[in-house]
Recover the amino acids of this structure.
């Protein structure tokens, strides 16, 4: 049930502002990509990438914003669980799209077949695992075993994309080795949160640099656009 006489504390307000700013940034960036793409498939993909990020995270962050401002309730807890499941799936799709962005950014490079196969298989496996009801998304306990499995598979997807951006290096003067750095930072912050945040809530603060890393990825696309 909703907390009675709930009064948001400063950390709650700051969290709500940060989450809202992140979603607004993504939405504006997506609109810019589509408006100024001029039919260029690379920037259309960046727009799709950004909408996937924004849309998926909104399912999880909007309930968090409501919880921070209004307090928790059984309904909010359920929405948070479902939102976490959806964002886990869309984040996997995010890396598939990022792989295709690499292809269009560096047409002079050929993606190694083994890397593409690994990215696709690991992404599909993670999405399937995320669909299992045994994940217990809407409970406080969750399922640590499945969490470890699905995030280990997710790490394989991320490593595959990291390798691509390391292969292209600073080709064409784009300096997109920074893309690899952003992905490494995001995973470095995300994995501890998924594994330990329920027992050690302060670990959840790592979601701030993780979110900033994704904003950095979008910002790199905007830099190419303009």
């Amino acid at each position: 049930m909703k907390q009675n006489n709930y009064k948001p504390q400063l950390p709650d307000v700051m969290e709500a502002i940060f989450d809202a700013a992140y979603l607004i940034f993504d939405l504006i960036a997506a609109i810019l990509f589509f408006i100024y793409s001029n039919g260029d498939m690379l920037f259309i993909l960046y727009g799709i990438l950004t909408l996937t990020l924004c849309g998926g995270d909104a399912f999880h962050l909007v309930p968090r914003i409501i919880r921070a401002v209004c307090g928790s309730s059984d309904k909010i807890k359920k929405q948070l669980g479902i939102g976490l499941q959806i964002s886990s799936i869309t984040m996997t799709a995010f890396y598939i799209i990022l792989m295709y962005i690499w292809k269009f950014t560096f047409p002079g490079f050929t993606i190694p077949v083994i890397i593409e196969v690994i990215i696709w298989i690991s992404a599909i496996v993670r999405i399937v695992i995320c669909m299992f009801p045994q994940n217990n998304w809407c409970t406080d306990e969750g399922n640590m075993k499945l969490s470890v499995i699905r995030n280990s598979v997710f790490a394989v997807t991320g490593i595959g994309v990291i390798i691509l951006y390391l292969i292209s290096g600073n080709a064409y003067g784009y300096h997109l080795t920074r893309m690899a750095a952003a992905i490494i930072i995001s995973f470095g912050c995300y994995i501890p949160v998924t594994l330990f945040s329920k027992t050690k809530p302060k670990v959840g603060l790592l979601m701030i640099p993780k979110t900033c890393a994704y904003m950095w990825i979008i910002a790199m696309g905007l830099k190419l656009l303009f």
